[in-house]
Amino acid sequence: xxxVCNDCxxxxxxxxxxxxxxxxxxxxxxxxxxxGRGISMxxxxxxxxxxxxxxVTIGHEALSAQPEPMAMIxxxxxxxxxxxxxxxxxDPVWTETALKRLAAAxxxxxxxxxxxxxxxxxxxxxxxxxPAVMTEAxxxxxxxxx
Length: 146
Ligand SMILES: [Zn+2]
Prior knowledge:
- This protein is 39% helix and 16% strand.
- The protein is an alpha+beta fold and 146 residues long.
- A hairpin with a 6-residue loop joins strand 1 (13-19) and strand 2.
- It is elongated and about 55 Å long.
């Protein structure tokens, strides 16, 4: 997927994408390298799910090569809890060190990672999320680099 600046006929450069906190829509931003004009594409939950289910890679999205977590992310972005075992109980608390480690991840995946790890910890019955829990969740979910 590419965007071309109408004035310059230049392929616009991907800037960032960010899953929103409501878990459905997604903003994808591009700028023209020639004139600097910027555009953002906002998808609604259904469109996000459609794009992802087609296996389209958006921008620099690094997680698209991971089928299993993507299926969970797809469900999360579709606006509901994952279709797997419905998590129950209160949200686990993120410790300060865990949050620091999360902050080291690329901005556009932090929301998804946070949601996935929180769900994982809740399903495991953990009261808090520490770096050790993050490592465990990362391995269990087949993620890398978080
Ligand atoms: Zn331009």
